[in-house]
Protein backbone atom coordinates (compact mmCIF):
# COMPACT_ATOMS: atom_id res chain seq x y z
CA UNK A 1 0.00 0.00 0.00
CA UNK A 2 2.90 2.28 -0.74
CA UNK A 3 0.75 4.64 -2.81
CA UNK A 4 -1.83 5.16 -0.08
CA UNK A 5 -1.28 6.86 3.25
CA UNK A 6 -4.33 5.26 4.84
CA UNK A 7 -6.22 2.34 3.23
CA UNK A 8 -9.79 3.22 2.35
CA UNK A 9 -12.49 0.58 2.46
CA UNK A 10 -14.96 0.66 -0.40
CA UNK A 11 -17.88 -1.57 -1.19
CA UNK A 12 -17.34 -4.51 -3.47
CA UNK A 13 -19.99 -5.83 -5.81
CA UNK A 14 -22.40 -8.30 -4.20
CA UNK A 15 -21.19 -11.88 -3.89
CA UNK A 16 -17.69 -13.31 -4.08
CA UNK A 17 -15.07 -11.25 -5.87
CA UNK A 18 -13.54 -12.33 -9.19
CA UNK A 19 -10.33 -13.18 -7.31
CA UNK A 20 -12.20 -15.47 -4.88
CA UNK A 21 -14.04 -17.13 -7.78
CA UNK A 22 -10.70 -17.60 -9.56
CA UNK A 23 -9.32 -19.40 -6.50
CA UNK A 24 -12.40 -21.65 -6.43
CA UNK A 25 -12.00 -22.30 -10.15
CA UNK A 26 -8.39 -23.39 -9.64
CA UNK A 27 -9.38 -25.84 -6.87
CA UNK A 28 -12.25 -27.29 -8.92
CA UNK A 29 -9.88 -27.63 -11.91
CA UNK A 30 -7.40 -29.64 -9.85
CA UNK A 31 -10.15 -31.94 -8.55
CA UNK A 32 -11.64 -32.35 -12.03
CA UNK A 33 -8.29 -33.28 -13.60
CA UNK A 34 -7.55 -35.72 -10.77
CA UNK A 35 -10.95 -37.36 -11.25
CA UNK A 36 -10.39 -37.63 -15.01
CA UNK A 37 -6.99 -39.25 -14.44
CA UNK A 38 -8.54 -41.65 -11.91
CA UNK A 39 -11.32 -42.59 -14.31
CA UNK A 40 -8.91 -43.16 -17.23
CA UNK A 41 -6.60 -45.17 -14.97
CA UNK A 42 -9.47 -47.34 -13.74
CA UNK A 43 -10.88 -48.02 -17.20
CA UNK A 44 -7.77 -48.30 -19.36
CA UNK A 45 -4.88 -49.29 -17.09
CA UNK A 46 -6.55 -51.45 -14.45
CA UNK A 47 -9.25 -52.43 -16.98
CA UNK A 48 -11.91 -52.30 -14.31
CA UNK A 49 -15.15 -53.59 -15.83
CA UNK A 50 -17.91 -51.06 -16.28
CA UNK A 51 -20.12 -51.24 -13.21
CA UNK A 52 -22.26 -49.08 -10.96
CA UNK A 53 -19.03 -47.91 -9.30
CA UNK A 54 -17.51 -46.71 -12.58
CA UNK A 55 -20.78 -45.02 -13.53
CA UNK A 56 -20.79 -43.18 -10.21
CA UNK A 57 -17.19 -42.02 -10.76
CA UNK A 58 -18.07 -40.96 -14.31
CA UNK A 59 -21.15 -39.00 -13.18
CA UNK A 60 -19.17 -37.34 -10.36
CA UNK A 61 -16.44 -36.37 -12.85
CA UNK A 62 -18.98 -34.89 -15.24
CA UNK A 63 -20.56 -33.04 -12.30
CA UNK A 64 -17.18 -31.51 -11.50
CA UNK A 65 -16.84 -30.55 -15.17
CA UNK A 66 -20.18 -28.76 -15.06
CA UNK A 67 -19.21 -27.04 -11.78
CA UNK A 68 -15.94 -25.96 -13.37
CA UNK A 69 -17.73 -24.49 -16.40
CA UNK A 70 -20.21 -22.63 -14.18
CA UNK A 71 -17.58 -21.16 -11.85
CA UNK A 72 -15.37 -20.23 -14.82
CA UNK A 73 -18.28 -18.38 -16.45
CA UNK A 74 -19.24 -16.71 -13.16
CA UNK A 75 -15.63 -15.59 -12.64
CA UNK A 76 -15.47 -14.09 -16.15
CA UNK A 77 -18.78 -12.27 -15.66
CA UNK A 78 -17.67 -10.96 -12.25
CA UNK A 79 -14.33 -9.77 -13.65
CA UNK A 80 -16.19 -7.81 -16.33
CA UNK A 81 -18.59 -6.36 -13.77
CA UNK A 82 -15.70 -5.29 -11.55
CA UNK A 83 -14.00 -3.64 -14.53
CA UNK A 84 -17.19 -1.74 -15.37
CA UNK A 85 -17.39 -0.68 -11.69
CA UNK A 86 -13.86 0.76 -12.03
CA UNK A 87 -11.83 -1.72 -10.01
CA UNK A 88 -10.17 -5.12 -10.06
CA UNK A 89 -9.51 -7.68 -7.34
CA UNK A 90 -6.79 -9.50 -9.30
CA UNK A 91 -3.15 -8.95 -8.25
CA UNK A 92 -1.93 -8.48 -11.83
CA UNK A 93 -3.36 -6.96 -14.98
CA UNK A 94 -5.87 -4.13 -15.26
CA UNK A 95 -3.27 -1.54 -14.34
CA UNK A 96 -5.72 1.15 -15.49
CA UNK A 97 -8.16 0.20 -12.70
CA UNK A 98 -8.09 0.67 -8.96
CA UNK A 99 -7.05 -2.56 -7.24
CA UNK A 100 -9.13 -3.54 -4.24
CA UNK A 101 -8.67 -6.19 -1.64
CA UNK A 102 -10.86 -9.15 -2.77
CA UNK A 103 -12.38 -9.75 0.68
CA UNK A 104 -12.95 -6.39 2.37
CA UNK A 105 -12.69 -3.85 -0.47
CA UNK A 106 -9.71 -1.86 0.82
CA UNK A 107 -7.99 0.14 -1.90
CA UNK A 108 -4.62 -1.52 -2.49
CA UNK A 109 -3.45 0.36 -5.59
CA UNK A 110 -4.67 3.44 -7.39
CA UNK A 111 -5.14 3.34 -11.18
CA UNK A 112 -1.89 3.61 -13.10
CA UNK A 113 0.38 2.74 -10.16
CA UNK A 114 2.65 -0.29 -10.00
CA UNK A 115 1.20 -3.59 -8.82
CA UNK A 116 1.88 -4.73 -5.28
CA UNK A 117 4.71 -7.16 -4.76
CA UNK A 118 3.38 -10.73 -4.61
CA UNK A 119 4.34 -11.19 -0.95
CA UNK A 120 2.70 -7.90 0.04
CA UNK A 121 -0.51 -8.88 -1.76
CA UNK A 122 -0.56 -12.34 -0.15
CA UNK A 123 -0.02 -11.00 3.37
CA UNK A 124 -2.71 -8.34 2.87
CA UNK A 125 -5.36 -10.75 1.62
CA UNK A 126 -4.49 -13.31 4.28
CA UNK A 127 -5.20 -10.68 6.94
CA UNK A 128 -8.37 -9.35 5.32
CA UNK A 129 -9.71 -12.85 4.60
CA UNK A 130 -9.52 -13.52 8.35
CA UNK A 131 -11.26 -10.18 9.03
CA UNK A 132 -13.96 -11.08 6.53
CA UNK A 133 -14.53 -14.50 8.10
CA UNK A 134 -14.72 -13.04 11.62
CA UNK A 135 -17.20 -10.36 10.44
CA UNK A 136 -19.42 -12.92 8.72
CA UNK A 137 -19.42 -15.14 11.82
CA UNK A 138 -20.34 -12.18 14.00
CA UNK A 139 -17.06 -12.09 15.93
CA UNK A 140 -15.72 -8.88 14.38
CA UNK A 141 -16.63 -5.33 15.22
CA UNK A 142 -18.63 -3.44 12.62
What do these coordinates show?
With 142 residues, this protein is mainly α. The chain has two domains: 15-85; 97-136, no CATH class. It is built from three helices and three strands. The chain has helices at residues 18-45, 52-84, 118-136; strands spanning 87-88, 98-100, 107-109. A three-stranded mixed sheet has the order 1-2-3. A hairpin with a 6-residue loop joins strand 2 (98-100) and strand 3. Helix 1 runs antiparallel to helix 2 (52-84). It is elongated, with a radius of gyration of 20 Å. Mean pLDDT is 89; it is low at 1-5.
Instruction: Please tell me the total number of domains.
Output: 2
Q: Quick one: overall form?
A: elongated
Helix content: 55-70%
Number of helical elements: 3
Radius of gyration: 20 Å
Low-confidence stretches: 1-5
The pLDDT mean sits at: 89
Strand order of the largest sheet: 1-2-3
Number of strands: 3
SSE string, helices as H and strands as E = HHEEEH
| End-to-end C-alpha gap | 23 Å
The major β-sheet equals:
3 strands, mixed
In percent, how much strand structure appears in the residues?
5-15%
Helix vs. strand class: mainly alpha
Amino acid sequence: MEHMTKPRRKNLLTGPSAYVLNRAQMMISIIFVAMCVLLIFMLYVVRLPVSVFTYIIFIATMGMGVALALVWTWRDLKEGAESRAGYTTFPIGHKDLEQRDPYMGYTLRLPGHEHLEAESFRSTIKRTAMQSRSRSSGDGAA
